[in-house]
Amino acid sequence: MDNNSILLSVRNLSTHFFTAEGVVKAVQEVGFSIKKGQTFALVGESRCGKSTTALSIMRLVPSPQGKIIGGQIIFEGRNLLALSEKQMRAVRGNRIAMIFQEPMTSLNPVFTLGNQIAEAIKLHQKKRTRKAWAGAVEMLGKVGIADAAQRAREYPHQMSGGMRQRVMIAMAVSCRPALLIADEPTTALDAIVQAQILDLLDEQQKQNGMSILLITHNLGIVAQRADDVAVMYASRIVEVGDSQRLFAEPLHPYTRGLIYSLCVERDASCEKARFQSLTTHYALRRTKLIPGAVPEPLHFPAGCKFHPRCPTGYRDKRCQTFEPELKEVGPGRCVACWYAPGYE
Amino acid sequence: MIELPKGRSLLKDGLRRLLKRKLATVCLVVIAAYFLLAGFIYLAEFFDWQIGPTLWQEQAGESYAPPSSKNIFGTDIFGQSVLRKTLYGAKISITVALCASLVSIAIGVPLGAIGGYFRGFIDEIIVWLYSTLSSIPYILLILAFAVVLRERSILGHKLTGITAVYLAIGLTSWVGICRLIRGEVIKHKDRDYVLAAVSYGCSRRRIIFRHLLPNVFHIVIIDFSLRFVAFIHAEVILSFLGLGEANRPSWGAMINDARMELSRGVWWQMAAATAAIFIISLALNIFGDALRDSLDPKLRTV
Amino acid sequence: MTTYIIRRLLYTIPIVLGVLLLTFVLFTVAGGDISLEIAGKGATQQTIDEIRQGYGLNKPLFFSWDSQFVNHFKNALTFDFGRARDREPVIDKIKRGVGPSLALTVPIFLGVVIISVGLSLIVAFVRGTVWDVLAVVICVAGMSVPYLSFILFGQYFLAYKWGLFPVFFSPDLSMARNVALPVLIGIAAGLGGNLRFYRTVMLDEMQNDYVRTAFAKGLTTRRVLFKHVLKNAMIPIITRVVLAIPFLFLGSLLLERFFGISGLGYLMVEAIGARDYFVIGAMTYVSAILFVVFNLITDICYVLIDPRVCLE
Description:
The complex is a heterotrimer. By secondary structure, chain A is an alpha/beta fold.
C-alpha cells in the first residue's frame, strides 16, 4: 500500500464522554486508512461508536461531556488533532465535509437553501455574495435539482426528504472537499430515493476524485458501494478489509454473524457483479440471529467485548479476560479475534 | 449466560438519576424539612402543644430587641420572637402554596386533558376560557377575585381572608398547567400507542386516564415545583396589599412590617422572612430544574 | 395577510366578550350591591334608592335590552367607564396615570430585554464553563428573592442609608431622578428569571442538528450563534417580549406604591383599598384589550420571521 494513495489515516483514536453516570468510552483505539478516490464504509449496529468516530475526525464531538483523549488523525500531511481551532475551521466544509442522517433537521429552517449553500462558498472560496449565490444555484443543478434558480430561493420545509439530502450534498461538495463523510445518509429515506442518493454520491466521487467515508448499518449498501470496509462493535473496530473479500470470507465472528443474519435471496434480475457473488454464496443459507444484545456502554464486558455472544468465545478463558488488538493478518486485512485465521 | 437489560419505567428511571445528583437530593431534604415543619405546627395546634412556633405570641423580650443569644432573630414591635414567627410563617406559606397548587391542578389538568383529547367544540370553550383569564394580568385577577371573595360565603361557610387568597390564586393559576397539559395531550393523541389502545377497544376515559395522563404527568410535577415558588411569592405580595392572614404571622406580613421598621434600623424581621423565603425558593427552583433534566427523555445522554 | 389579520381580529371578539362577562360577574354580581357601601352607614332607604338609580343598579342584570350587562357592554365599547368613587371620571384618572407608569416600566423593560438577551448569547457562547454556572447561580438566586425584599433592600441601602437616590417621589426633582432607583431595582429583580429563560432558549436551539451542520461547514462559533441560532431563537424570544408590552401600561403596583409614583399601579392599589370596582373593572378591561392586540402583533411577527408559518 503506497503512502501516496492514502488520504486519511486514523490511528489509535479514543473518544470518551464524561457523564453524570460515568465515563462512556464511545470510541476506543480505533484505526483505519482511507485511500484517495475510494469509498470506505464504517459498519456497525446503532450505538457502536461509528458516528462518534466521524464527529471526532471533524472535531465536532459535543463538548464539554465529549472529549477526544488520544490518537492521531493524519490528513494531507497534518495531524488534525494537533491543529488549532482556527486551522480546523479552514478544514471543515472545505477539505473535509460531512452530511448527516436527518436532512430536515440538519438544514436551518429559517434560511433559504441558496443562502445556506452560498454561505459555505463565501466562507471558503472568499467569493462575493452574488458570485456565491450563482455558485450555489450551479451546485443545486449539479445534484440533480430541476429549476435550481427558483429552488434556491425556497426553504427546507418546502422540499421532500430526498431533495433535502441532495441540498445537503450540494452544500457539502460545493468547495470540492477531498473527503466527504456521510453519516447514514440514506437511513431516513425510502428505498428508491436511497438508490438515487447513493448514485449521486458515486457521481460526485467520480467527478471530483473525492473519497467517501460512508457510515451505515446497512450491509446491502456496503456490499454495493464500498471499496473497503471496517466493522465496528462496541466502540472498537473488529475487522477491516476490502469489501469483496470481507463478504466472501468474514474473519471475525461478529462479521460472520451479521452476514448470516441477512436473508439473501437469489435475484436473477440483479446486475451488479459484486451483489451477484454475494447471492451465489449465501443463497442457500438460513438466517441466524446473533444471540444476546449489544452491551451497554457503561457496562462493557471484560476481555473481548463480543465474547458473551460468540460461539467460540463465551466459554473461552482467553476471550473472557484479554481484549484482542486489531492486527494485520494479510495484505489490507485486519481483525481483532484470538481465533481468527492468521492471528498471531 | 447472556443478561438482558432490565426495563425501567420513565418515572423510576428519572427518580434514580435525580437522586444521584447530590445537589438535588439536598434540595429535596430542605423542601421536606419545610413541609415537616408546617405539618408539625398543624399537629401542635391541633393537640394544643405549647412549644416553639405555637408560642409565637408570647413576649420573648423587649420590643425591637436585636438578635442576641436569647432571641436568635431578635424580636418585633410587640417583643415577640422573630424566630418563632418565622417558623410559624412556614405553616401559612406552605398551606397557601399547597392549596393553590392543588386547586389549580384539580382544575387545569382535567380541563387540559379533555380539551386536548376531544378537540372540537368543547376544546374551543376551554381555550376561550383560559384565553379570557390570561388576558387579564395575573395580579389584577388575583386581587379582583380576592377582594370579591373576601366577604362572601361558600356553602354557608364564611371565607376568611387567607382562604379567599388560596382560592383566588388557585382559580386564576390553573391556566398555565391547563395549557401545558392540553399541548402535550394534543401531541400524544396522534401517537401510535394511543391508536393501538383505541384499536383494541379502550374506552375514551381509560385512554385519557390510563394511557395519556401518565405520559404527560411529568409536566405536572415539574410545573408544580416551579409554581409553588410563585405562590409563596404571591402570598408576600398579597399580604403587602392587605389581603391575607391578618392575625397570624406570615412571611409576607413580616416583610410588610419591615417597611416601617427599616427606617428605625430594625432589620432582623425582614432578614429572617426573606431568608426563609429565599431558602425554600432556591431549593424548589434547583429541584424543579433537576427534575426537568432527569424526566426529559430527550436529554438522556446514555 | 389582511384576511389573516381580519380573521384573527374576529377571533378576539369572543375573548373580549369573555373579559367583559368576567368583570361584570365579578364586580356587579359577586361583588354585591355597592350602593349600600356608597351610601355609607346610617343612610336612609331613599338615599340608597337614589344611588341605585344613579348607577343604574335597579335594572335587571341580563335579560333585557336595557339590562346592566348590556349597558356594561355598551360602555366598554365606547370606553365610557363612568366615574370612580370620588366622582372623578375614570378615564381621566387613567390618562393621568399612564405617563408616570410608562416612565417607569419602559426603561425597566428595555433594560431587562437588552441585558438578558445579550447576556444569554454570551452565556450560550461559554456554556459549560464556570462563567455559565456562575450566571445560572446568580439567576436562580435572583429568582428566589421575593420582589418586595428587592425593593426594600434597594430603598433602604441605596436611598435611605447611602443617599444615592431619593427615597420617595419628589416633585422638585426631575422625572429621571425620581425613577432612577425604582428602574434599577426593577431591572435587577427582573433579570434573574428572564436571563434564565433566554439562556434555556439559546441552549435548546443549540441542541438542534442544523447547528452541527453549521459547524461542519467551518463557521465560527460567533457566526453560528448570531446568525443561525439567534434567528431561530427569535420566535420564543419575541413571544415573551411582545407579550410583556401590555403589562407596561399597568405600571408596577409595588414599585409605584413604595416610591410614591402616581401611575396606574398606584391607582390600582388605591382602588383595591377603596373597593372602587369602577376603576378596577375599567383597568382590567383596558389591559385585556391591550393583551389581545399584542397577541395579534406577536402572531404577525411570527409570520415575518418564520418561513414555516403559512397563513391558512
